[in-house]
Design a protein that fits this description.
Strand content: 15-25%
CATH superfamily: P-loop containing nucleotide triphosphate hydrolases
Shape: globular
Order of helices and strands: EEEHEEHEHHHHEHEHEEHHHEE
Oligomer: single chain
CATH topology: Rossmann fold
Number of strands: 12
Largest sheet: 8 strands, mixed
Number of helices: 11
Bound molecules: iron/sulfur cluster
Structural class: alpha/beta
Number of domains: 1
CATH architecture: 3-Layer(aba) Sandwich
């Protein structure tokens, strides 16, 4: 597998995962192509790329909220795509998702008590006083309190609504959470608070995260490793430090150059990417990034670059690295 060498066994192993959609006239949208990586216990893997690169589809397919076109996801030694619907219900308790837009993911007609209590009701885990105590416990865990129980989502700020979404995701004591752009809809000042809350919860509850985002600025603070995707393909995977200090793939270099630097005299220049991201219905031949890459050569049109370990634990797919 394409991972850092660690003494722990992987918590989740993703093998050659692809997800295509039919788009009519026999054509397919190749949203996710051949994703293979491991996530270790207690780790946060950041999944980064522009909008439309397939990262949210990948996250949802890993949870089997979408069925894959091909590939396997192993959790506790079992391929989750082989599980029956009944076994999958048990798995849902352990694998949860936090959505991007807390307003549209929370039913506006439900109180906070019912929103957080809903997973407990569906899985019949808590009733009566136990249920209420659990909901208050979850509210406190995310920095809210019992005064919020009878309020509705519109009565909260964006950051508070995301805290409610997080409490809901935590209700069943999950082990693994896909955080699907959980800060993208929030003001910058609130983003750091939510990232810090997720970090605290990870430590307290021993959680493992796949943290999806479209830019690197916050991802680098929360992630142990970062995986960069472009047009449904993996293009680079490394520790957060290695990827942010020494990005290898031209696409990662461009993403990183867009992150604001706190030092006023920094010489880092923004790398502009030419053109739009191509259509996943008709991706470029060879390297999918070649239409926007200033280093593109003839081999990049002819041959898809192989996934290679260029430095220890640092992988990329680019013909610049032999
Ligand atoms: Fe650029 Fe070629 Fe590397 Fe693709 S393989 S990123 S086109 S240099």
């Amino acid at each position: 597998m394409y991972t850092l060498i660690k003494k722990d066994e992987p918590f989740i192993s993703i093998h050659h995962l692809s997800k295509y959609y039919h788009s009519g006239k026999g054509r397919q949208v190749k949203a996710v192509n051949n994703l293979s990586f491991d996530i270790y216990p207690g780790e946060t893997v950041g999944l980064v790329g522009e909008s439309g690169c397939g990262k949210s589809t990948a996250g949802k397919t890993i949870l089997r909220l979408h069925e894959p076109t091909r590939g396997e996801v192993f959790y506790k030694g079992r391929n989750i795509f082989d599980l029956s619907r009944k076994s999958l219900v048990g798995l849902r308790k352990e694998m949860q998702i936090i959505f991007q837009d807390p307003y549209s993911s929370l039913n506006p007609r439900m109180t906070v008590e019912d929103l957080i209590g809903e997973p407990l009701d569906i899985h019949k885990t808590h009733k009566g006083k136990q249920r209420k105590d659990r909901i208050i416990q979850l509210l406190e865990l995310v920095g809210l309190n019992h005064d919020h129980l009878n309020r509705y989502p519109h009565e909260f700020s964006g950051g508070q609504r995301q805290r409610i979404g997080i409490a809901r995701a935590l209700a069943l004591n999950p082990k693994f959470i896909v955080c699907d752009e959980p800060i993208s809809a929030l003001d910058v000042s609130i983003q750091a608070q939510i990232v810090n809350l997720l970090k605290e919860l990870q430590e307290k509850l021993g959680l493992t995260y796949l943290f999806i985002a479209h830019d690197l600025s916050m991802v680098k603070y929360i992630s142990d490793r970062i995986l960069v995707m472009y047009l449904g393909h993996m293009v680079e995977l490394a520790s957060s430090e290695a990827l942010c200090n020494d990005p290898l793939h031209p696409y990662s270099q461009a993403l990183l150059s867009a992150v604001p630097v706190p030092e006023p005299h920094s010489k880092r220049e923004k790398i502009e990417l030419n053109g739009e991201i191509p259509s996943p219905i008709d991706p470029p031949s060879g390297c999918v990034f070649r239409t926007r890459c200033k280093h593109a050569a003839s081999i990049c049109t002819e041959k898809q670059p192989e996934w290679k370990e260029v430095k220890k634990g640092h992988f990329t797919a680019c013909h610049l690295y032999k």
